[in-house]
Amino acid sequence: MLKKVSLLAAGLLATAIAWAAPTVEMTTNLGKFTLELFPDKAPKTVEMFLYNAKHGFYEATIFHRVIDGFMIQGGGFNSSMEEKKTLTPALQNEAATGGPNLRGTVAMARTRDPHSARVQFFINLKDNSFLNFRASNVDNFGYTVFGKVTQGMEVVDKIAKVPTGNAGYYENVPTTPVVIQDVKIISEK
User: Fold this and answer.
1) Tally of CA atoms within 13 A in the half-sphere of 159 that contains its CB
2) pTM of the model
3) What are the pLDDT digits (tens) for 157-178?
4) Apex CA 101: angle with CA 112 and CA 27, to 5°?
5) Contact at 8 Å (CB) between 156 and 149?
């Protein structure tokens, strides 16, 4: 009987592991944090983020836009504020299924064009419901949430407190670069 219970427990554990959400560990010069991704809500966005992580795209990029009480944005510029050439095409916006922009969630940054997200992402520092999908017109399309911080939110909050200024055309740029040193995939399923 004990052997049957052990086999059943092992089978349940294997099933739970197979259905676990993809997770990544992001290391910055101010500390590490872990993201759980939402492939069930934003499959194409998660696929693109993992592709870029696997290919080292995010290494040596920075958090180039930091607004305490709102969000921190990164993943597209180096420490000289030069935009990095992207590896992937623009994404179809998945904000309608991605979920709400709550504190600790990670979402895709984009231009006014709702389908222009490529590599830049932001982490919400508070609930930002005005960024949620409300209608399929340009003004209310929303920003695709594709994950959340599960460990290390104190590091995200630390990044939010760095001094910022202007750098050329850009505002809210940390005066000392906050560098993404590594994005390591912990699990993909």
Assistant:
1) 32
2) 0.89
3) 999 999 999 999 999 999 999 9
4) 95
5) yes
Q: How many CB atoms lie within 10 A of CB 181?
A: 13
Residue pLDDT, tens place only, 6-53: 444 444 444 444 457 999 999 999 999 999 999 999 999 999 999 999
The CATH H-level superfamily of 21-187 is Cyclophilin-like (2.40.100.10)
Q: Could you give the CA distance from residue 134 to residue 142 in angstroms, rounded to a whole number?
A: 7
3 state SS for the chain: CHHHHHHHHHHHHHHHHHCCCCEEEEEECCEEEEEEECCCCCHHHHHHHHHHHHCCCCCCEEEEEEECCCEEEECCECCCCCECCCCCCCCCCCHHHHCCCCCCEEEECCCCCCCCCCCCEEEECCCCHHHCCCCCCHHHCCCCEEEEEEECHHHHHHHHCCCEEEECCEEEEECCCCEEEEEEEEECC
The first and second tokens of residue 133, run together, are: 């999908």
Q: Are 105 and 147 in contact (CB under 8 A)?
A: yes
